[in-house]
C-alpha cells in the first residue's frame, strides 16, 4: 500500500507545539514541516521563537528560513511548497507532520486557495487611499459589517489582511470567509489526522505567553530588530515581516513611540490576541481532535493516538 498519511498538529502560540513535535520525531517515522508565517524569515529568530540549532539538528524542520525579511510569503506559496514536500516525504516512506499556528496555511493546504481572486492593483490602491484618510480601524469596522467571520480574526490595525479581505469582496462580491470555505475542487487526497492543542485554562496560557515574551526581551529581541533595521535598510514598519506579533511592537518602540515597559505590555497583549484568533480558527475547523495542551500527559495521549491511527 502506498503511504498516504499526513498529520496536522495545530494550536495557539505558547501551547507547546514545537516541543511535542520534536519529541514525536524521536518516536515516529515523521518529518516536521513548519506551518508558521513568521518562521519562513531568515534572521528573525528570537521574536519568532524559532527552534535553536541544536533542536533543528535533532529534529529538522522544513519551511524554516526560506526568505529574507524584505520579501513576502503567501498561503498559496505555502500550499505549493507543502504539496511538493508531501510527495518527497512519502517517497522516503515517512509521514509529513505539519506543526504550527498559522491556521490560514493549514486551511489553504487542506482546502486550496484557487477560489480567491488575484490581487488588483487599482482596487488595492483605492482601499489604501481610503485607509489613509479614515484609518485602518475604520476599515476593519467596514469589514466587520461585510465579513464578520474574517474581521473577528484580525486586529483593527492589521492593514495587510484587512486590505486583502476588502479587496477580495470588491473584486468578487463574495466574502473571504465564504470563499475559503467553498469547495474549489483542490482535493487533498490524503489520510489526514488533525490534532489541535487547546488550553483547558486560558489564564494559564496567558501566563505562558507573558513568560515567553519576557524571555524574548531578555534574549535580546530589541537588539535583534535593531540588527534587522541595519542589515535590511529597505524594511519599514509596514513590511509584512515587521508586522509579525512582537516585531511590530518592538519596531514602534525603536521609533520612540513608547518605552520598554509599554513594549512589554503591548507585546503580551498582542500575543494574547493572536492566541485568541488562533483558537477561534480551531473551533471553526471540522474533523479535528482536540487535546488539552496543559495536561501533563498530553505527549503520551498524542503518541497513543498516532500509534492507533498509523497501525496497519
Number of helices: 14
Quaternary structure type: single chain
Question: What is the chain-wise order of helices and strands?
Answer: EHEHEHEHHHHHHEHHHHEH
Largest sheet: 6 strands, parallel
Strand order of the largest sheet: 3-2-4-1-5-6
Terminal CA distance:
10 Å
The count of strands amounts to 6
- CATH domain class name of the largest domain: Alpha Beta
- Extract low-pLDDT stretches: none
- Kindly provide the radius of gyration, computed on alpha-carbon positions and rounded to a whole number of angstroms: 20 Å
What helical percentage do the residues reach? 40-55%
Total domain units: 2
Average pLDDT: 93
Q: What fold name goes in the CATH topology slot of the largest domain?
A: Rossmann fold
Classification by helices and strands? alpha/beta
Describe the structure.
The protein has 312 residues and is α/β, with parallel strands linked by helices. The protein has two domains: 5-114 and 191-310, P-loop containing nucleotide triphosphate hydrolases (Rossmann fold); 121-181, Histone, subunit A (Orthogonal Bundle), CATH 1.10.20.140. Helix content is 54%, strand content 10%. It contains 14 helices and six strands. The chain has helices at residues 17-25, 53-58, 75-91, 103-111, 121-134, 136-146, 148-153, 159-172, 176-181, 202-219, 221-231, 247-254, 260-284, 298-310; strands at residues 5-10, 30-35, 61-62, 95-100, 191-198, 289-292. It has a six-stranded parallel β-sheet, with helices on both faces. α6 (136-146) packs across α8, α11 (221-231) packs across α12 (247-254) and α12 (247-254) packs antiparallel against α13. The longest helix is centred in the last third of the chain and has 25 residues, at 260-284. The radius of gyration is 20 Å and the shape is globular. The chain starts with a strand and ends with a helix.
